[in-house]
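Before the break, one more example. Copy the sequence into your notebook; we will annotate it together after we see the structure.
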Amino acid sequence: MNKNILFSFLLVALGSQVALAQSSYSLKQCQDLVLQHSKKMKYAQMQQKKAEIIRKEAWTNYLPQVEAGFYAVQLNKRLIEFSNPSGNLPVYNGDPTTLPAANQFAFLPAISLSAGDKMHTGHVTATQPLYAGGRIKTGNRLSEVGVKVSQLQVKLSKLELMSKTESMYWQIVALDEKQKTLEAYESLLKTVEKEAKDALKAGLIDKSDVLKVGLKQNEVQLNKLKLKNGRQLALMAFCQHLGIEYDPSMQLIDALPPNVAPSSLEVEAAASVPKREEYQMLTQAVKAEELKTNLKRGEFLPEVGLGASAFYSDAMENGSNGRLARVGIFLAVKIPISNIWTKRHSMSGQVMGEKMAQNRLEETTELLKLQIQKNYYELTESYHAIALEKQKVAQQEEFMQTIRDNHKAGVVPLSKLLEAQADVQKAKSEYIDALSAYHQKVVAYKKASAQY
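Here is what the structure looks like once it is written out:
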């Protein structure tokens, strides 16, 4: 009996440890989860598979085109009906003068012939393209461009998901840090409350001072509730982003990383742009437009194909003698003549599309450079904000200590001490906000400069 109880206790303890492990996540685990469950990622991967299928389909244009056909016809009346009665035919002996008075004859039996009331015809044709104006090769190159674009889209989707996950992760971690500072402030107020009550018993202060401490404690409770609700909302959005069920007990175990100076991350904007997936996708778009222009140009060129065909028909009725079977080879040449003006206008439109793609690439290049530089400026501003907020915390703590010493000496009222303590707590909260904002700026700059 005791063994069973001990075994049950161990199972409960082990289950608790597993549940705890499952509700605690590192940044790496969260990034793995979002890549595994994100519908955006799955869509990009399906687009890549589709592009690979299209590439395989384009390659089959190099193979011969084979077609077959079969026809069965039943008519209400024969197409051919012929009959000849029996009779004697004069025999020619080589002398034309004897034909009118021939004395030798050959008997010709009656003949009747009918055909065409039903017919079965079949054929098989295979054509191997020899030249198609370069469109087969160009089409395959265009399908390869589609595969490259889909691969870049998968990388871009992965980058966006991972960077957004990290940004949301640090936001929640910052809220947890704020919770700690608020709890420390609450503990400090409890100490002040005890001191105030002791001072009230000793007749050193009025009851109003004790009530002021209570008001501050109520304010802290309200702020804790707001912070708790804010964290739960942020956690709900985070779980939805990860593609998992909402878990209110979910804990993020990674702390905010050390601050890295912006100068150690700075790279030249012009050198970073070509590494961006967006730039590479637009480059492929320009290449695709060039290939489409080549496809249009190929429509003006002839097509040449070599083929073989087999034909069978049994339209006649007289058994095997009425069957017809043939096999042949052929060389086909197709030269486009009609609709040439329509094709010329279509060609001009495609050339314009090619220029538009190139213009879009150049414009985006400048915008990406501007984005990288803007993110770097925001990064440096955020880095300096950390130093200022840290200095502010130190100044507020020093000021509070001075007020506390003066309060103990009876020079400063309790209300001033409470105000100084609140200012310290506020400064610490703003310092945490600055840290969180900086790490989000780091993520944004790394992403923009192709360092993520």
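Strands lie at 24-25, 65-74, 80-84, 87-90, 105-108, 111-115, 118-131, 251-252, 303-313, 324-334. The first strand starts at residue 24 and ends at 25. Try to locate both features in your own notes.
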